[in-house]
Amino acid sequence: MSQNPMSPTGEAARDQAVRAIEKALRGADLATLTAAVRALAPMQVVDVLERLDDKDRAVVYRLLPKDRAMEVFENLDPSLQRDLLGALQDDDVTALFADLDPDDRVELLDELPATVARRLMQGLPAHEREMTAGILGYPQGSIGRRMSPEFVAVDRSWTVEHALDRVRRRLEDAETVYSLPVTDGHRVLVGMVSLRELMKAEPDTEVSTIMQPANWARATDDSEEVARRCADLKLLALPVVDNETRIVGILTVDDALQILEHADSEDQARIGGTEPLRQPYLTTPVGSLVRSRVVWLLVLAIGATLTVQVLEVFETTLSEVVALALFVPLLIGTGGNTGNQAATTVTRALALGDVGPRDIAKVLARELRVGISLGLLLGTVAFVVTGFVYDWPLGTVIGLTLLSVCTMAATVGGAMPLVARTIRADPAVFSNPFITTFVDATGLLLYFLIARAVLGI
Q1: Where exactly are the transmembrane stretches of this chain (predicted)?
Q2: How many CB atoms lie within 10 A of CB 401?
Q3: Alpha-carbon distance 315 to 93, whole Å?
Q4: pTM here?
């Protein structure tokens, strides 16, 4: 039974390996270091390299056998690949770059200075340079930048025997052979056929008789949307075509999942009010961590001045009924949490394609009902508890405020991600931090207006 690398046991084993390697590095014990590194699986080596500084990372990487070194390098984040290249010799760099798949090569090029990228491109064989340049020609964020041009296509007029022979000859350089695009004589995509179906069919069967209709994406389509489609349809490979439906590449399921993982990390960071990190946490400089957070903190601090202004306007009301001040944290906290819950739920539904901007009326209606239900439940509890502890008029104020705040927060929180998508902004940016600031100020305004009306102050 395989061990889950994320389990406590797996983490303990990784930490133990890191300590052993760091000890060998400090003691310059090359024999022990080599044995420790080569005893690890490739993905375990990746975990270790993500926890070392640049110098030690290069030393450890050089101790790997050539075949394992390539696999480890392919699984590093592009930012760490860039740092590692900076610490290696020129010959090592050229060989590593040439051995990468074209799509992985483009990701790395985006991280490198233009002069270095140009030099590495010039050192590629002509065929590899042509494939890489083709991918670089597509817009940033498009699936054309993430597809692999190394695929096996079969012609619909071929026999199964001919198709299988083509697959065998391309086993070494193809990205995948389990799901094969079917084309006509002009490279136009006409269908898909699985390797299983080819192997089941008689050798003289024509490919066109066993192929299936193809799902495909245009090379200029958004990479996250295409990756989501690939995952939702549970496809091993999704063909990518140009404007004339000629096949130019494929997106494999592992690349699709990597795109979705990266997009999810970005969303989670922005929902929390930070910019996403471009490399693993332990290798990110402290200055970069500060920069990823300080801008959002400044924006939110400026937004929070609205809350201060509301308190200043109702200073007289607070001085007349001092107990009102005791409930301010409860009310703004509940409102912020309610808005964040709604925003997070709708943002996730947007990412999964469950809702879109056209559904804003339906989302508003649902969140309005949810907000009223939550407000009634929480407001009733607050009314009873506050009434017994303080007095019933104050309990009425707190109960009505919770009803109003929950209704407003859920409705606004549900609408903001859809508004963001409509204006082509990132829905995650419009979520928790901004909603919290908005709901704090608006909730306090509702609170004091209700208090004035109920208490007659």
Answers
A1: 294-314, 368-390, 396-420, 432-455
A2: 28
A3: 66
A4: 0.66
